[in-house]
Amino acid sequence: MSDTEPNVDAIRAMRAAYDQALSGWTQAVESIVASEGFADVSAQMLQQYLTLQSSLRNASTTAAAELHLPTLDDFARLSTMVVNVERKVDEVADLTREIAERLAAIESRLGPAESGA
Amino acid sequence: MPRAASQNGASAEAALKRLQAIPSLDEVTTGATAKDVVWTRNKTTLCRYRRETEPTHRVPVVLVYALINRPYILDLRPGNSFVEFLLGEGHDVFLIDWGEPGWEDRDTTLDELIGEHIPRAVRHVLRVSGADTYTLLGYCMGGTFATIHAALRPAGLRNLIALTTPIDFADAGALSTWTDPRFLDAELVASKLGNVPGHLIDFGNKMLKPVTNFIGAPALMWERLMEGRDMEPWLAMHKWVNDGVPFPGAAFVQWIRDFYQQNLLASGTYELAGERVDLRNITASLLVVTGEADHLVPPHMSEPLMDLVASGDRTSRCLRAGHVGLLAGSGAQRGLWPLISDWLGERSS
User: Fold this and answer.
1) Which helix (H) or strand (E) holds B123?
2) What is the rounded CA–CA span in Å between residue B159 and residue B347?
3) Domain-embedded: residue A20
4) Which residue among A1, B69, B279, B289 sits deepest, i.e. has the most Cβ atoms within 10 Å of its Cβ?
5) Residue B137 sits in a domain of what CATH number?
6) Residue B49's closest CA among B28, B27, B72, B67?
7) Alpha-carbon distances, residue A32 vs B29, B208, B211, B227 (angstroms)
8) What is the residue range of A93's domain?
């Protein structure tokens, strides 16, 4: 082994020791996180997070309104309008394609009749 | 200096050099297979992967991804890409990508995504491919969406592949406890946050296996680094795992309430946009694939689908893999991919 190559055997030994030590811990921790007690604590933390986020959003909305700046809700309303227009264009495009296909089918049926006449 | 100490010092130095040479996550190539956009609606995009030759299979494959993280797990990196593999096997491959919802999408529901976007996407797939039938392949939550669509609009669906797809939520392990109405008020979460941030969902998923995710994953990185192995596979997976997207608030409420809390789909009482979803409407050939080490969607959440559909051609396989490793892990190229290729090949002529 050259001096610049890692000592792989030592790493593997460390990894084996790590795996052995952690397997017990893994099971113990996973049983804790699956418990109702953990879920209850998580729910309380989530509640605090929601309150904080909600307060921050309200504060930023109020500040933007005071400064006569558009808020996130204003941009969202604009986006919704764009999305609605896109939806209508998509539906019109579908309808147009359907009409074109029907016309093509009619033309193909009329073609032989016209040439026969 | 003793030889062992000298070696360890050199090892550390070599590893440090490799650490410094690691590219940033932005520099890691993911989702690189060339594709064209076929159709878009709001953030939803239907893409068709480019082929240099005509497909040898007539039935196009439509991949339906989940609302969590990004779909490039299906096309992780050149040389380890499920999409690349399917193209190589002669399939015409499409992807429904839900995109990244913004604040304006907080009211987007599953009714819209499954009930409107998937059928329209399918119509475009059939139009551009010129095919009469198609295969739907859903991964994780995308499999649930694909299954619901298959039950509501079975016409034209030739094959349904459900990869690690939650169907029966009666026992979702720790997630059943966490999403219990006593501990999680999904409506409150959505009303306060709008969309549920990707990092919050990511943290929840990682907490299901905290030791593995918070200690095991970094340890694996160091192991690869010290052994001088290629870091790209680890980095690509690390990038994907931490690349969460927000979950639209209204869809989140439906997902938690209707599936985790009330288990409506498996009990046959689920309704999408007022239409009852009867899984017995599914007559397409069905392949259910699960991972025996999948902690997010354990096999018992997917396998009931086999008995809930009316398909005459049903196959179920449980592979030795976890939720993500099944699709993009080192064993996927020997396990899942050939399994799907063989199964699909016989049913795509």
Assistant:
1) helix B118-129
2) 7
3) no
4) B289
5) 3.40.50.1820
6) B72
7) 38, 10, 12, 34
8) 70-117
pLDDT at B231: 86
Complex prediction ipTM: 0.76
Which H or E run contains B254? helix B249-254
Asked if the C-beta of B29 comes within 8 angstroms of chain A's C-beta atoms, the answer is no
Of B41, B211, B227, the CB nearest to A86: B41
Q: Return the structure tokens found at A109.
A: 């049926």
The residue in chain A having the minimum alpha-carbon distance to the alpha carbon of residue B184 is: A43
Does residue B140 contact residue B153 with C-beta atoms inside 8 Å? no
Report the candidate in B204, B92, B186, B200 with the shortest Cα–Cα distance to residue B137.
B92
> Does the pTM of the predicted model rise above 0.80?
yes
pLDDT tens track for B221-264: 887 887 788 888 889 999 999 999 999 999 999 999 999 999 99
Q: Please provide the size of chain B in residues.
A: 349
For residue B211, give the nearest of A25, A77, A97 by CB distance: A25
Total count of domains within chain B: 1
d(CA B292, CA B243): 25
Interatomic CA distance for residues B45 and B251, integer angstroms = 18
**B19 interfacial to chain A (CB closer than 8 Å):** no
